[in-house]
Amino acid sequence: MAASRYRRFLKLCEEWPVDETKRGRDLGAYLRQRVAQAFREGENTQVAEPEACDQMYESLARLHSNYYKHKYPRPRDTSFSGLSLEEYKLILSTDTLEEFQDMNKGLWKKLQERFTPKSPEEKQKAWARVLSRPQA
């Protein structure tokens, strides 16, 4: 029975799209990672809680098939902001969110990040430069 559960999850992972614009935050990539962790031994994995596993699969399958989108259709495809789906995708992309975070930083924080050494070797070199300066 575990083999059939494993195959169902694999099929769901194959069908689930991966959004490349959401690096590190994509549900499809996270789903693949979790399935790999849960079924480490592949079809030979013993499922401790089969009911919970089946319930999880059914929930994910409903999300993937847009069950609730079809069950509760929206009268219009707009939101309170009036932005389109494509505009939301652009705004929620990882690159855009990183740009927003950079814009929100104050001048002091930007300078601090720019001049603070990143690696331990860089820190050691910076301290060596400071300590080797002649005393006034």
From TrEMBL:
InterPro entries from the UniProt entry: UQCC2
Gene Ontology annotations for the cellular component aspect, listed alphabetically: mitochondrial inner membrane; mitochondrial intermembrane space; mitochondrial nucleoid; nuclear body
UniProt keywords, alphabetically: Mitochondrion, Mitochondrion nucleoid, Transit peptide
Major localization listed first in the record, in broad terms: mitochondrion
Ranges for region Disordered: 115-136
Biased composition (Basic and acidic residues): 115-125
BP term (GO), one: regulation of skeletal muscle cell differentiation
Name the record gives this protein: Mitochondrial nucleoid factor 1
Organism (species): Cavia porcellus (Guinea pig)
